[in-house]
Design goal:
Layout (H helix, E strand, L loop, with lengths): L9 E7 L2 E10 L1 H5 L4 E6 L17 E6 H9 L7 E6 L5 E5 L4 E5 L4 E4 L3 E6 H8 L7 E6 L6 E9 L2 E9 L4 H19 L1
Antiparallel strand pairs: 1-2, 2-3, 4-8, 4-10, 5-6, 5-9, 6-7, 10-11, 11-12
Helix pairs in contact: 2-3
Length: 196
């Protein structure tokens, strides 16, 4: 629909309370406004009957805050877009460790603000962590929330611009042990092939 207008057009989106299944897109330019002509597209919206999707409630076990650049560098140092990363935080909150079969990176509580009461060991896929870590360009810091070991996590960037502010939140599902075992087997096979 946006390609129907030109770069100098003004777009007005209209939705009426008495007709919630329709949206009207109106493109207006200086040329067609003078002649009284407007470009309009009347779009019927799809109605989906389904239950509300959401993230289930979890009890927070760990909250960490670090510079978003530090988080990006940690993820980038794994050098892969596939595989997994374990997020390990001891109950004393002394350090945050990320590791897998090939890499291990630890940062102390002097580099990362850590709030925790329990040991937490969660596993997340790098294919999700790599793209989300690139949001470091939007925010100076990132907050990582981990739930019970083996459960989900959340990565949150809060950014401020001169005319806007916002929050970008990513929810992470924990990896299943079968996925981790399969990944380790594939890595071992690759190493054996490269040794031959």
């Amino acid at each position: 629909i946006l390609q129907c207008g030109s770069k100098n057009d003004t777009l007005t989106l209209t939705a009426k309370a008495n007709d919630p299944d329709r949206a009207i897109f109106t493109f207006k330019t200086a040329e067609n406004a003078v002649a009284g002509a407007l470009n309009s597209i009347d779009l019927g919206l799809v109605s989906i009957d389904s239950q509300k999707l959401g993230v289930p409630e979890h009890e927070v076990q760990v909250k960490m805050t670090m510079t978003s650049k530090k988080f990006f560098d940690m993820i980038k140092s794994f050098g892969a877009k596939t595989g997994y990363a374990r997020f390990i935080v001891p109950a004393n909150g002394s350090r945050f460790t990320m590791k897998n079969t090939k890499n291990e990176i630890s940062v102390t509580n002097q580099e990362v603000e850590i709030e925790t009461q329990l040991d937490v060991d969660n596993i997340f896929g790098l294919r999700f962590l790599v793209p989300m870590s690139k949001a470091y360009a939007l925010a100076s810091s990132v907050e990582i929330t981990l739930f019970k070991s083996g459960e989900a996590g959340m990565v949150q960037f809060t950014f401020f611009f001169p005319n806007a502010a916002g929050t970008l939140m990513y929810y992470l599902a924990g990896w299943l042990p079968e996925e981790m075992d399969k990944e380790e087997e594939e890595e071992q096979e690759e190493e054996e092939e490269s040794d031959e």
